[in-house]
Amino acid sequence: MKKVYKVTNSITHFFAFLSGLILFLVSPHFMLNHRKKWAPFMHWDYAHRGLYDNLWGTPENSLPAFKAAVEKGYGIELDVHLTADNELVVHHDDSLYRMCHVERDIKDMTLKEVRQYKLLNTEEKIPTLQEVLDLVDGKVPLLVELKTESHTCDRLCRIFSKTMLNYSGLYIVESFNPLALHWYKKHNPKVLRGQLSCNFFKEKPHCDLVLFMITVLGSNFLARPDFISYKYTDYKNPIVRLNCRLLQARLALWTINTMDAYEAVRDNADMIIFEGIEP
Fold it and tell me: Which of 11, 132, 167, 181 is deepest in the core (most CB within 10 A)?
């Protein structure tokens, strides 16, 4: 009986340790003034890359797309990259190929080089972050995705944070890269930060350990995010539910592109990121 008791006790201790480890890895940031800090951002619908239409002359992440979102009263989701000469520009892809038909990466180009290309055969150019901030001027909240590789993470975050000191409007940040969120946790914790994720097993069947950790929010121990920004088709992941229901992280869902999907998920999210529709 003693041996059985010892084995049972060891198993119980092991599972207790394992449960504690999982909670340590995936737990978000706990805020004492949670509701007050979140109130200005909650229950907004955020236009993904602005209120754009790539087929009809209003390119994504362009000034007209952001202007249209402001006029319709939508929050704005946008993407920020750092150029080779340390300027911040608003563009989604690392490369200009899809939007400008040029096989060059933003990180290897100066701002002057980036600005010589036009978006999807329109007269619009890739805007600087400052141009977007001047246009929005605090009229709607911003959800800013920091697009950064690990070796440029510190530089992008420092320059972005300094730029935003002069902006009086509301903004929060998110990133797939937990190192960017860790930077904000350490250097600018007052800014709400979100871990972007999805089921990378579906996106990339041979995903590596890093993508596995991001999928299961195992990188939260680095970032301690205030919210989880998860692909809406994957958000029923048990770890997402653990974060958002038990551990009180806020939930943003992306990218809702039909009204049926919008109606199905809107009561389950604090923020909805949409495109191709007008909720």
Answer: 181
